[in-house]
Amino acid sequence: MKKKRVIIWTIALVILMLFSITAFAQNATPLKLSGYYKNLFTTSKTLADKKKQGISHLQRLRITGDYALTKEFSFHISYDNEILLHNLYDSPDFDLVRERDQRKLAWIDLDETIIDERYFYWKQSIYRLYAEYYTPKLRCIVGKQGVDWSRTRFYHPFDLFNPISPLDIEKEEKIGVDAINIDYYPEPFLMFNFIYAPYRNPERQGLGIRFGSKIADYDFFILAADVKKDKFIGASFDGYIKEAGFRGEYTYIWEDDGDNFLRGAVELDYSFTRKLYGIVEYFYNGGAKLMEIPRFLGSYDFSRRAFSVTKHIIGAGLEYEISGITKLNNYVFYDAEKNSFFNNPEFKWNIKPNFDLTFGAQVFQGDSNSEYGNYRNVYYAEMKMFF
Question: Rounded CA gap, 356 and 346, in Å?
């Protein structure tokens, strides 16, 4: 483990040094450094013990380097160093944190748990590492990257390679997938996308193609993919009904275990005024299985692939800008099959251009044989400083 830790540190530092040296030596565009520092505090009863109050305090430093070698060719690296103070060491809840490991979820393992002891968890990782070639007609990204084919807001049937749960507090933090990602635009209204995501075990690799075309005010896409031995075909659209956004995406899936089913989402969003925005979505999951609730709650990888344990979910959200620097949001999901609810009120405060505060809660209601009835209420506060 010590050797691996040294390798990760060395890779991050060497790449950043090479960027800087090359930039100065060639008098080229300087290396652009950015990043953020985050504090995220959460508290909730644990899933395993309703009487135990779980507390966690995440501190993450992310340093990002972007360097344009030429007008077309660039490099990107993001390095994370995070500490989690908590009281969940012996709880199954914390096993889900440990499962977010590149050794299990990515081809190239570039993260390292430095300390995993009672009350203290320390981890470092290469969050993103890729080279990019870009022209108006061709874009190629090779390396650890975020891949998202979906355009829906809550549930994402097109998000095949590194999906994330709509219940995740850090929805923007998608674990990177190691892939070759090629976009080709033969015409302004046509696109072709190819992705190959290798893995040490060939049964967990991913391969996908997507075609897109623009007709009037709508973007249309079709896809075919083979990801972790599951096969997918799909179609999606994204456009407008007058001034309202209207989009949907559907995939038909042949799972490796023999189940075939349809999964899809359709949504409508609208800005009522400059300050008030609303959205509603219907999600259908033909592969949902209530019998899989224990596995869904206990496995990070399985829950990302399964999406839900019930078939019919209705989501809605309102976002209201109180002032230029404060916003109040509320998102509600309703499990129409088993009558359970998820409610997520959130207050955002942009104190300074580079300093954000967020306060929120996730409130669940329903019985144990439902989509949201097994979760515990979560309360969180986040401070994020960009540089």
Answer: 13
